[in-house]
Design goal:
about 375 residues; alpha+beta; Aminopeptidase; 2 domains; 13-stranded mixed sheet; two-stranded antiparallel sheet; 11 helices
Length: about 375
């Protein structure tokens, strides 16, 4: 009984085996073929990135499929998930022989390290503890750390009304429902679940423009309009709308886009990726919150019972009633060259998560403790 590994030089060579395991195993839409076809075809073509899909088998039984890359960064060779800032949750696809205990996870990871190509760091970030109710074995390893990123999840086991009753007081429920009353009074106002076609492209283009303008107004870095990333999302939109894995919803008033939400789904759980709402006079109907609320109701009627606001600790997610979900990082030096980077990152994470230690360090440095 032993571990066997198949590593692939291209995504095309791995795609069929990965999707076969995803169909019967446990994963998120970020590990399904629609997402990975688009990802490896575009960000995977950057000069510093090489595809490295890995299929792990235990005694010839499929166990895990890891959509990985080799990436050159800061003079170091890193083995990472296919992410580069685009994938919200990173995890292996879990098959029937995936490890479920710490001892088995440690044995698997030691065998995986030996099977991987030479690198300086293994850097697995933003990993959930569970994948569709199953343990993620990589988060069972002793040196895993809590990530600075968190997920955000709303679960609605019963009706929307029952969930609202459990989450909000009477005034909160009225405030939750107010934007639709305001918006629906506007002539030509409507909510759309967008189908493939010219209208989808028009709404998506407007979403991209609105999002870029808003981020630039805030003076924040914006990567989604970089050519490879824009091509990734365009490919994802075209394929995903056709097969139902992409969900595009919108609020419109005549020809005006008031709000839009770009999500991916897997039949019972929505993962929110890109959200925009018009400003100015439209602010009176809270279009960002309204498009989320309308989308939730639309999908709940189609048996969706989980609404994932994905990564980022933003106040509006708390106001909407989302629960924080911890994510985990695994960084391991696989060469002497990679050791200083891993040690520094671990020290920084320890400092960030220990308020008393942070206060002590800042006192030594003669600086006030930051608010966050």
């Amino acid at each position: 009984m032993s571990w066997q590994f198949k590593t692939y030089a291209t995504w095309d060579g791995a795609a069929e085996a990965f999707e076969a395991l995803a169909t019967t195993g446990a994963c998120f839409p970020f590990q399904r073929r629609t997402w990975l076809d688009a990802w490896y075809a575009h960000p995977g073509k950057k000069p510093d990135v090489s595809p490295l899909p890995v299929l792990a088998l235990w005694n010839e039984t499929p166990a895990l499929a890891l959509p990985l890359i080799l990436r050159q960064s800061g003079g170091l060779t890193r083995i990472e998930y296919a992410d580069c800032g685009l994938t919200d949750y990173n995890t292996p696809i879990l098959g029937p022989a995936a490890p479920q205990t710490t001892d088995d996870a440690v044995a698997f990871f030691e065998a995986l390290r030996d099977a991987l190509p030479k690198a300086d760091i293994i850097d697995f970030a933003k990993m959930p503890r569970e994948v569709k109710g199953r343990k993620n074995p990589l988060t069972l390893l002793p040196n895993v750390e809590k990530s600075r990123m968190i997920g955000n999840l709303i679960t609605v086991p019963g009706t929307i009304d029952e969930w609202m009753q459990s989450r909000f007081d009477r005034q909160g429920r009225k405030e939750f429902e107010r934007p639709w009353r305001v918006f629906s009074r506007i002539e030509g106002a409507k909510f759309l679940a967008v189908e493939p076609g010219a209208e989808a492209q028009r709404i998506y283009d407007a979403l991209c423009t609105m999002q870029a303008e808003r981020i630039h107004e805030l003076g924040l870095p914006y990567i989604l309009d970089e050519p490879a990333n824009a091509a990734f999302y365009k490919s994802l939109l075209d394929t995903g709308l056709e097969n139902g894995s992409v969900i595009l919803t919108a609020l419109t008033a005549g020809e005006t886009l008031v709000g839009a939400l770009f999500s991916v789904g897997d039949g019972d759980r929505m993962y929110m990726l890109r959200l925009v709402g018009a400003g100015g006079e439209w602010g009176k109907c809270s279009p960002g919150r309204l498009i989320v609320e309308r989308t939730m109701k639309h999908l709940h009627a189609q048996d969706y019972h989980a609404f994932d606001f994905t990564i980022g600790d933003y106040a509006y997610k708390r106001r909407m009633g989302a629960d924080a979900v911890d994510l985990y990082d695994l960084r391991v030096a696989t060469s002497v060259k990679g050791l200083p980077s891993v040690v520094y990152t671990r020290a920084r994470n320890t400092l960030r998560q220990n308020e008393k230690l942070r206060a002590f360090v800042y006192k030594l440095r003669g600086k006030p403790l930051p608010l966050s």
